[in-house]
Write a structure and sequence with these properties.
Blueprint (H helix, E strand, L loop, with lengths): L1 H19 L3 E4 L3 E5 L4 H22 L7 E5 L3 H8 L9 E4 L4 E4 L4 H20 L9 H11 L5 H13 L8 H4 L4 H21 L6 H10 L2 H9 L3 H16 L5 H60 L27
Helix pairs in contact: 2-4, 4-5, 5-8, 6-8, 9-10
Length: 342
């Protein structure tokens, strides 16, 4: 009986362990979210962001409600690589597979996770927009729209654009897609430039935003033809006007954020140097005071010794010993009570 009881307890433990290793599922009207025990907080953030973003993105793109999007919240590097086909988790935070309607996310926190959700969902819906044409939008449009929808323009983006404009290192529009396969700094600049392209598009018709361009894109599937039909702009004219816009925004400007960072760093270093110098000065002062006090005590002892000896001799007090007698000295004669007879 005891053996059966132990076996039953073991089976219960194994069952509980297996249950804990199974992914959890949360389903909304337009999404299905897969996550793991311990990720409840991130899962709630993802669900909230998806429910708010999907209707808004469909409205921007002019899309009806489509099939659900499967969202996976990875919990280990191994699962991330399995779901993404081996993407480096140190370089990529999220990936969308529009044809499969799948989004894979790393478990970030707070607003950064919300932005990531919107970013990846835009990739899926943009492909829906051109699905009937069979076209594949350029990478700059995918990434620019995704950052635009997520309101993702950071201080780093501003610094990269300022440096690129003032150093003459802006990536031309014709080379922008290839830049996404370059070095990390070049990739980051390509993302930032893509966002400015979409913002520039939206401001061509301020009252309508991106609607004219996206409408034509959905019909023809080609960015150049959509530009021509929506704004009567050739690709070269559009690229030149966008470049002039960037020059007017960033040329001659300094990276105030970076400058402020350097100023604060300098203040901290100066404070530390002053603190160290003050500590050293205080140590020197203490050492000199200790040496002076020791010297004063020695002088007091030297001057006070003869006076103490003189006082001891005069008063005869204190602990003293009798002087030894000289054995060679004659004994003093005693006074005789006898008188010499005369």
């Amino acid at each position: 009986m005891r053996a059966l009881a132990c076996l039953g307890a073991l089976l219960l433990l194994v069952g509980a362990a297996l249950a804990q290793e199974q992914p959890l599922e949360r389903t909304g009207i337009e999404y299905r979210l897969y996550y793991w025990p311990g990720q409840e907080t991130q899962a709630a953030t993802v669900a909230e962001a998806a429910e708010a973003a999907l209707p808004r993105l469909r409205q921007v793109l002019g899309l009806p409600m489509g099939e659900r999007v499967d969202i996976h919240l990875a919990h280990t590097a191994a699962e991330w690589k399995r779901l993404t086909g081996g993407a480096d988790p140190n370089l990529v935070l999220g990936l969308a597979f529009p044809e499969r309607r799948v989004v894979v996310l790393q478990p970030l926190e707070g607003n950064r996770l919300r932005q990531l959700v919107v970013h990846e969902l835009m990739h899926v819906l943009l492909q829906d927009k051109v699905a009937e044409t069979g076209a594949k939008p350029p990478r700059w449009l995918h990434e620019g729209l995704a950052k635009y929808a997520a309101n993702d323009f950071s201080a780093t983006d501003r610094m990269l654009l300022t440096d690129a404009v003032n150093s003459g290192k802006l990536i031309p529009l014709a080379d922008l897609d290839q830049a996404f396969a370059g070095r990390q700094e070049q990739v980051s600049l390509a993302y930032a430039e893509s966002l400015t392209l979409v913002e520039f598009l939206a401001n061509l018709e301020p009252t309508q935003g991106l609607a004219p361009f996206l409408k034509q894109l959905g019909q023809v599937g080609d960015v150049n033809r959509a530009l021509l039909r929506a704004y009567h702009l050739t690709p070269q004219v559009f690229a030149d006007r966008w470049r002039r816009h960037l020059l007017s925004e960033y040329l001659g400007k300094s990276n105030g954020d970076r400058g402020l960072m350097y100023i604060w760093a300098g203040i901290v270093v100066l404070f530390l140097l002053l603190f160290v110098a003050r500590m050293r000065r205080s140590a020197v002062i203490r050492r000199r005071l200790e040496e002076e006090e020791q010297a004063r005590q020695r002088m007091t002892t030297m001057w006070d010794l003869p006076a103490r000896v003189g006082r001891s001799e005069q008063a005869g007090g204190g602990h003293w010993s009798p002087a030894p007698r000289d054995e060679a000295s004659p004994e003093p004669e005693e006074d005789s009570d006898e008188w010499d007879a005369g």
